[in-house]
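Comment thread on ticket #2218

A.B. wrote:
> Attaching the input chain for the structure job we discussed in standup.
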Amino acid sequence: MRLPLVLGGLRIRLVVAFALVAVVATVTTGALAFRAARTGLLQQGQDTVITQFRDAVDSLAPSLTFPPAQDDLQVFADQIAHAQRTTDWRVMVTYQGRTATSAPGDAFTELTPAMRASVRDRSATVFQRVSTAHGPALVVGLPVGIGTPDQDRGLPPPSGVAVFLTVPQNDAQGYVDSLVSAVERATVPALLVAVLLALLAARGVLRPVRALRGATRRIAEGHLETRLAVHGSDELADLSHTFNDTAAALESSVADLRRMEGRARRFAADVSHELRTPLAAMAAVTDVLDEDAAQLDRDTATAVRLISEETGKLVRLVDDLMEISRFDAGAASLHLDEVDLAESVLRTLAARGWQDTVGTELPPPDTARGIVDPRRLDVIVANLAGNALRHGELPVRVRMSVRAADAPGAAGASGADRVAVIEVTDSGPGIPQDVLPHVFDRFYKSDTSRTRTEGSGLGLSITAENVHLHGGTITAANSPAGGAVFTVTLPLRRDV
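C.D. wrote:
> Ran it. Output below, let me know if you need it in another format.
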């Protein structure tokens, strides 16, 4: 399932990063712009109201008699309230505990004791924004002076009369709300533009990344001549240069290794070929000497048998080397014939005198018929059984079963609807865990102190090559009951 990979891809991360930056930048810019505009709007409205209020008080104050009576305070409040016809002003005038309001019964609840004290004590204009049941409002307090302005302060002496004004700020709040809506409407297009730019930027960034991924895959597939086109001088261009240098070094190293491997294969094949003729003569001589060994003295007979045994080992080693060189050169081929695999296993064991040593569990005759290479099947069974006899312990058993090609534990092959599964088991100590991954390696020794073995060290490698040549599989494992288990799966083709 590729969904988590897609969601966590570099393109998505780039787009999300750009979008987050755009959101933060847009919100921050919008918040700062909104704050500045809101402050400007409210400040402008506030300054206008205070200026108009002060002008109205200053123009009407000279007509106020002192000490003012209650009626004088009421008239003064009404005059100030109607000084601006387009403004809904509410005015309250106080003097020595007496109060007059422009609206009868107006409690003027917006006015706080602290504001009253500020106007009385500071003799200065005081204002405050408050929230009311009818919305936001601006409350302004102003002391009324009488007489000639003081030379030090520039203000007339206080008369004890204080005037308070409440002006609704609904219009200003409406402008602020409109500003908020405008910022919100501008944020969405800005975010969309940012995402579009992010997609374009991600496309530009990911193009060389995709090219690098494709080139890496081609290198993994064996196309070592793959190189990247380098554009620009940024970090991605530097990465492309590094990739090209690495690919060139890898190609050179692999070419050297292939040349060395080719020379080693040719050497092994040439040496094996040159040894076959003298070894054939030596084997013929040792056969003759073996026949006369009984007539020789004891020491001479022992030496003759030793030479015969070692010559046989050398012949088998050369034959194995020749066989493995054919696999390496790609010259190995199958000579197919339809046979009964169970019968072929019995012939292999009988030909080597193992029919009484190796137990068998085989399917009935003609049950496991298929088209295989009989010689290579003989090599597979003989090598596995011989390996179990040499390195394991009795009893050794060869089991065979036939399954459908798509059955669990079976490996299918083209042209086959059934497979034969051959298991060779022994009762020895099993294969050490550190050796299991290397049992099919050439000349691998689990005990490095052993300088030579009875076999060539190529038997299991040749077995694996023969199995793979048939399109089958081979595995090595340890049985829970003890001992090693080699499992071969061969497709039973019905057509050549």
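A.B. wrote:
> Thanks. Noting for the ticket: Residues 337-493 form a domain with the Heat Shock Protein 90 fold (CATH 3.30.565.10).
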